[in-house]
Design a protein that fits this description.
about 190 residues, mainly beta, Lipocalin, 2 helices
Length: about 190
């Protein structure tokens, strides 16, 4: 009888132990940060080729999750070498003075169904704004996959100064999309 009770308790505890996994090994080579905007009314997109990310996510304690992402702004890929050089310049990202964009999560709110709302601070060109990003979580091939997006206004960060400050050529709203893959910690 004692043996069957112990077996039952062990069997009941296994699913809980399986869920107590912390995903903290970000797979940058399998992850992506992209952006979309409108230029003269035409939808455009691009990506950042280099970024670093730190993540601590335990599905059983999702609201305690933390994320920090640093994007190398000079790694921008708009699909045009000339445009990449332009946006790295002083009137846009000014990558010599401000080489990275920085995001740090502040809170995570569980919405149910593996959906979360991540609030944090985004800093670009020395200016910081609060952002909120809806994020979905899934397990694929033993890795955590986080998909999300948010929109910010480039004027809030002085991205596009001088003749580029008007929004008739490049829209003010920029959408950021991200897909972050993370393996369980050791």
């Amino acid at each position: 009888m004692k043996r069957s009770i112990a077996a039952f308790i062990l069997a009941a505890a296994l699913p809980l132990a399986a869920q107590a996994v912390e995903y903290n090994q970000v797979q940058v080579d399998k992850s992506a940060i992209t952006f979309a905007y409108k230029q003269m009314g035409v939808a455009m997109d691009g990506k950042f080729r280099k970024f670093a990310a730190q993540l601590n996510f335990d599905p059983a304690k999702a609201t305690a999750a933390k994320a920090v992402i640093d994007v190398d702004l000079a790694s921008i890929d708009t699909g045009s070498t000339e445009a990449d050089q332009e946006v790295a310049g002083k009137q846009w990202f000014n990558t010599k003075a401000f080489p990275t964009a920085h995001f740090a999560s502040g809170s995570v709110k569980a919405l149910g169904g593996n959906r979360y709302e991540v609030a944090g601070k985004l800093t670009i060109k020395g200016r910081t704004q609060d952002i909120v990003a809806p994020v979905t979580f899934a397990i694929q091939g033993g890795q955590a996959v986080f998909d999300g997006s948010f929109v910010f206004k480039r004027a809030d960060f002085a991205i596009g100064e001088g003749p580029w400050a008007a929004f008739d050529t490049v829209a003010n709203e920029i959408q950021i999309k991200f897909r972050i893959l993370a393996a369980p910690g050791k």
